[in-house]
Amino acid sequence: MQKLAKKFIEVMKECSHIAKAGTNSFHGYKYATSADVMDRVNSSLAKHGIASAARPELLSLQDVTTVKGNTEHLATVKMTIELTDVDSGESCSITGLGSGQDAGDKAVMKAQTAAIKYAYMLSLAVSTGDDPEADIHTDQAGEELSVVPLKPKPIRKRVSQNNATVCVDCGTPISDKVFDFSVKRFGAALCMDCQKNHQAV
């Protein structure tokens, strides 16, 4: 896959950094939007003649109860993206995990959007210019907010290269301190960004 790999490196260079243009007004943090990630990545893939085909797989769909007693749907999706070099025919696949919660019918769509976003960000080593584990404001907010524990039970995954714990939602490596805090507050191993998504208001 040398030809595809060379093109993929060029895509990585062009997508190495994506500015955080989105703002969560309720929790007061900025993030790289899915639209910005998709626009940058798709433009670069098309430029270098790499076709993509996404295949979602619904891993779980369950109802959760918020602290206000409302029932919402929580979906977790695995997204597999097949990348094919149109010149050589070489191909490879990348994957991402995403969860979405909604009171209506958009939980699966939110999960798919998160999964494809993080599949590209992790595979292309996209930087958004911050370290989520250094977000002290989230730690402080977690002490004040009531949260709904996630199911299934706490999961501690390992990355084969460095034996590091990773977030069960997006696959981002997390420290033992963040893992312990997340399991205690949410019932699952989550990075700081995904903890924000699962906070129940």
Automatic annotation (TrEMBL):
One Pfam family named in its UniProt record: ERF
InterPro entries from the UniProt entry: ERF_bacteria_virus (IPR007499)
Top-level division of the source organism's lineage: Bacteria
Protein name: ERF superfamily protein
Source organism of the structure: Schwartzia succinivorans DSM 10502
